[in-house]
Write a structure and sequence with these properties.
Layout (H helix, E strand, L loop, with lengths): L17 E3 L4 E5 L2 E6 L3 E3 L7 E5 L6 E11 L4 E9 L2 E10 L10 E4 L6 E4 L2 E3 L10 E6 L3 E5 L2 E6 L2 E6 L5 E4 L9 E4 L4 E2 L3 E2 L2 E6 L4 E8 L14 E3 L5 E4 L2 E2 L9
Antiparallel strand pairs: 1-4, 2-3, 2-10, 4-5, 5-9, 6-7, 7-8, 8-9, 10-11, 12-15, 13-14, 13-23, 15-16, 16-22, 17-20, 18-19, 20-21, 21-22, 23-24
Length: about 260
């Protein structure tokens, strides 16, 4: 089953759009700062979410080594570079934009996310990819009751919930653990990370008399500050269970692999 934390579809921003990032952005390899900038740019190479593009002048310990390979990267052509940080070399780590790219991108470099050990917006770590300025996450307490069924078995029934609203994604219903029938669920080893919510603390699966359903529920014990109301609560995939809110069955949204 796909992770709950997939890219947020963009409903607004076109491919190739560039705009300033109003935050200090830093990247680190080991204990060395690759770059430190207050002049980063968002660049949408695809619609789902942006990347950071960093002025080459703002590299600190990072050195770019041209690998003499050019590709089109959505916003324009870019030349692939390795990244050298002290004795460490990360091949294929960076893309320096060519002249056919939007003018603001000239003399900037876009790093592959996994090529760096950690990223920071101001002093807060960022996971998976940059957060889009056009995506929101709102976690709101609600008196709506929620019942979760699958293959005719009630897996959870709660008198209230926290509703999590994310731009472009289905509403998720987070429930107190006391209202979940844990005798019906088994924990899996799945872990996923989301730039908007953090790192999951657990996924759970369910096996009925007729089928096995993997990773249908998850929780964040230590979510980001923006989503702190879901801490320790459990949500089920609307896509794979029968979900009743205030007694009304919800239609299933599209598969989250999208």
């Amino acid at each position: 089953m796909a992770s709950e934390n997939v890219a947020h579809p963009s409903l607004i921003v076109p491919v190739g759009h560039v705009e300033p990032v109003p935050r200090r952005i830093r990247g680190v390899v080991g204990n060395r700062v690759v770059f430190d900038t207050r002049r980063a740019l968002y660049v949408w190479e695809w619609r789902a979410y942006p990347q950071f593009s960093i002025p080459v002048e703002d590299l600190v310990d990072g050195v770019l080594v041209d690998e003499r390979h050019t590709e089109h990267r959505g916003a324009g052509s870019a030349r692939r570079h390795a990244l050298r940080v002290g004795s460490a070399v990360r091949e294929g780590a960076a893309w320096v934009w060519d002249e056919d790219s939007p003018k603001p991108l000239h003399d900037t470099v876009r790093f592959e996310w996994e090529a760096l050990d950690s990223w920071f917006e101001e002093d807060e770590p960022v996971f998976v990819h940059p957060r889009s300025p056009y995506s929101r996450v709102d976690a709101l307490r609600s008196s709506s009751s929620v019942r979760v069924e699958l293959d005719g078995v009630v897996l959870a029934e709660a008198p209230n919930c926290v509703k999590l609203f994310e731009t472009g994604l289905p509403t998720r219903y987070y429930l107190e653990r006391m209202y979940v029938d844990w005798s019906r669920l088994r924990q899996s080893d799945t872990v996923s990370r989301c730039p908007y919510k953090g790192t999951t603390s657990g996924y759970w699966s369910f096996g009925s008399d007729t089928a096995s359903h993997e990773d249908i529920a998850w929780a964040y014990d230590f979510p980001t500050i923006q989503a702190n109301r879901i801490a320790g609560l459990v949500a089920f995939y609307n896509e794979y269970v029968d979900l009743y809110v205030d007694g009304v069955p919800l239609p299933k949204p599209d598969d989250p692999t999208r």
